[in-house]
Protein 1
Amino acid sequence: MEVDVRIFIMPKKDILDPATKAVTKTLQSLGYDISQINLGKCINLKMKKDKNIRKRIEEICQKVLVNELTEDYYYSILH
């Protein structure tokens, strides 16, 4: 059986992200009362569900998708 996996990747809180800063300034200059924005990535995968699915997702994130020096991540397995 296949399931959908949604991986969310966000910059670490202490990392100054230029894209986030630019979007925040633009929205504020347009008059929106925004004090903070967090820009990140959402990646959707379709994977075979088995007893090792969490381990495989962790490996995918750590080996390919996430720079753990600058990014945090979490994921959801959708049934």
Note: Helices lie at 18-29, 53-65.
Protein 2
Amino acid sequence: MILEEYKDCKGAILTDLQNKDSLYWLGFLASDGCIGSNTNSITLELKNTDRNHLLKYKNFLKIDANVRERIQKHIVNSE
């Protein structure tokens, strides 16, 4: 599952380092996310069974980003 790139979030939520939820989600983002410095956006991707966790993250940030399944194509090297 992937939480699509989003730009319109309340980033101040994640800067409250006294808030345990903010610290949890910052760590989560650091381990499983990607911050686009050129696009000023965030992408977060997990396995399909973790869809509910992406929804919790989305609700915490109060954003309107899509959570969708990404089909990954496997490339087989035939030698």
Note: The helical segments are 20-32, 51-61.
